[in-house]
Amino acid sequence: MEIDRRTLLGAAALPLAAALPARAAEDEAHWAGVAANYDVTRDVIQLEHGNWGMMARPVLAAYRAAVERVNRETSFYARRTMIGDLEAVRAAAAAALGADVEEIAFTRNATEALKALILGYNRLRPGDAVLYADLDYDAMQGCMAALEKRRGVRVVKIALPEPASHQGLIQAYAAAFDAEPRIRMALLTHVSHRTGLILPVAEIARMARARGIDTIVDAAHSVGQLDFALPALEADFVGLNLHKWIGAPLGVGALYIRKGRVADVDADPAEGASPTEDVRTRAHTGTVDYAAQLTLPAALAFQQSIGAGPRARRLRALRDRWVHAVRDLPNVQVLTPEDPRLYGAITAFRIAGRTSHDDNVALARTMLDRHGIFTVHRDGLASGSCVRVTPALATRMADVDALAAALRTIVRG
Ligand SMILES: Cc1ncc(COP(=O)(O)O)c(C=O)c1O
Description:
- Helix 6 (138-151) links the parallel strand 3 (129-133) and strand 4.
- The radius of gyration is 22 Å and the shape is globular.
- It has helices at 5-8, 14-19, 28-35, 57-97, 110-120, 138-151, 166-179, 201-210, 290-306, 308-325, 357-371, 397-412, and strands spanning 45-46, 104-107, 129-133, 154-158, 183-189, 214-218, 237-241, 253-257, 332-334, 347-351, 373-374, 376-378, 386-389.
- The protein contains twelve helices and 13 strands.
- By secondary structure, the chain is of the alpha/beta class.
- Pyridoxal-5'-phosphate is lined by residues 109-111, 137, 189, 193, 218, 220-221, 241, 253.
């Protein structure tokens, strides 16, 4: 069976696009229709969609078709037309991200992209300093810390204020920049994987640039969860994946380097002694899951059929529903503030005074064993551990209502 190139490039999802008008976040009938595209397990109430995103059914169908084609034709496809197809995929990714195609290179995940950016950023001199925060992802913290030995810089780590506020977060970075005038580069995590807190990245990046500080943004959790274009972040370097909130197959990520800044990141040594200024030389991945990359347009088409604005509002509404239902419980500490600029779908909580790793492992276990709700504990906050709740488009309001009811039962003991 010959697979139509349009199927690989996402046309399979287009009839659905026409069928889904933009709707209010609370229109349950509409969102039930969206959720019906996801074959999510009903063995548990799955509220841990932060690890990676499910493929919607049309995306999975496109992926299967792509796997079959790549497997059947192997290099007969790869050495003739696949490169052109992948170029079209890259163009589709760039358009969806609001970037120029020359600013985007594929990686296998956000980790690979951010490692290339952090470790490759070559404007640091011995005696300079770099900055990161407690909410940043552990692997990126490791890369930032490694710069001390690799580049001879001082590594500054700050704890973000809790409770956070829009202005308080900006001030925390301003104070850190003031305290160490030799900071030349800062890592900013757009959406925290620990608490769900959204950093006012554009404001901080602008303030940083005015002081001669470059920012590298970790957008692993924001692309597809929030409604924004990459240039709006005002950062010249961004690492992201498309297998979380865009719902592409696992193994699709990207790095973004703003035009004119490629030389400030070292080429991957695998590119040899005379690399070009093509952004793709900054991450050399070798052979990858081509079928996964070829499926990206189907995932983007599915997301576009929902709309980035309605999607972001729906995800926030799912979070609001359970958070507002438990706010009369004095023992429940919700770790994102009630400022819609500062949260999306993800929000973590803890029970007052129970801040240890073990406390929060036990809480997530109780949630699962007694209430059939799957969440995950998170560590690494200066204020202690917590439990993270991540609904997604497959989530029904009834699912987050069940979480609120379970929490009420647990704290009332
Ligand atoms: C904030 C953040 N950064 C980076 C990553 C790494 O993403 P990936 O798994 O695509 O490498 C994650 C993954 O959960 C994350 O939450």
